[in-house]
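retry 2 of 3: previous attempt timed out while embedding zinc ion. Reduced batch size to 1 and resubmitted. Inputs unchanged:
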Amino acid sequence: MGFENILGNEKVFEQLNRFRTKSAFPPLLFWGRPGIGKRTTALTFAQILLCPKGDGCGLCRFCQEVSQLTHPDLRIIFPLPPRPNNEKERDLETIWRLRQKYALGATRPLIPKNYLIHLEDIHDLTSEMRFKPLSGKKRVVLIIDAERMRQEASNALLKTLEEPQPDTVFILLTSRFSFLPATIRSRCLPVYFPPLTDEMIAKYLYKIGYDEMAVKRALSFAYGSLRRALDFMNNPFPIPEEVLSLAFSPSIPSLLTLIDELRLTDWAETVENLILLFHSQLLKRFGLKDYETSYPEGFTTEELIARIDFLLHLQSDLEYNLNRRLFLFSFLTALLRKGKRK
Ligand SMILES: [Zn+2]
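retry 2 succeeded.
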C-alpha cells in the first residue's frame, strides 16, 4: 500500500519516503490548491509511520484506525464553529460529526469562514504531548487548514514547534500558504503539492467509468484538482443559472430583485467556477486544451480576459468583504457592466 494509490505528486512521495526512516524531522507544511491530495497523503503517511509493519499496509487494525481517525496516536486539529457565548462545554457531537468528514476517502467539507482553530485546541494537544505515544512509536499531528488558527493559537503552537519533539510528527496543511504567519512558516519544512495534470485526472476518471465527453467537460473545471473534477461529475452545472444568465446575456430587468432572490451559500465557489469557466474557454480558444463545455462561448478573447481579470480582483476582495449584500451588489453590477461593454 503506501502512496501508490494516490494520484500524482511523485516528488512529494519521494521526499516523504526519505523521512519515514529518520528518527526525527522538522514539522512539515503541506501546501497547494484544495482537492489535490494533501490530506490523503498526510493520512497515508500517518499510516506508514504508525503501521507495525512499517509500510502502511492499509489492512491492519492500526492502519484502519488511522483511516477512520480513531488511532490514539493520531491527532487531527481542524477549524471548528464558534461556540455560543453562554456555552462553556464544547458540542462534542458536532465535533465528532465534522471530524468524520476528514477521514481517509471522505470528501472534505466546505468550511464556513467563521470556523477557526482555537487556543484550547492547541492546549489540548500540548497537554497530551506530555505523555509518550500510546503505541510506543510516533504521534502524528495533522493541523488541517492551518491558516485558520487564531493568533493566540498559532503563538501557542509556535512554542511547541520550537521545542524538539522527536516523538511527534507535525503536518500542517494549507491551501493558502501566504495566510499563515511567517513565524510558523519559517519553523516548518514546506512541501509543495503541484496541481495534478489533466492526464492524471482523466486517467482516474476513465478508470472509474466516465466517458470521453464527460471527462473533457469535467477537466474544464478541474484546474488540477481531483476533488473539483469529482464535484463537477456530481453537479455538472456548478454555476447558478441566474449568475450565468447575467454573465452571458446581461439584460436583467431588476438587479436588486435578483440579489434578493439569489440564495447562494458559497459565493467564493461561484466566483472561482466562473473564473475557471472563462479560463478554460480561453485555453480552448488558443488551441491549448481540448476541453468541452456545456456553457455558451460567445465572447471575444478580450472580453474573456477582461472577465477573468475582474473576477480575480473580486476574489481577493471577497476574502475581506463581510457584507454579503454589498458584495453581491458590486459583483452583479460589475458583471453587468462588463457584459454591456461588448
Ligand atoms: Zn498497517
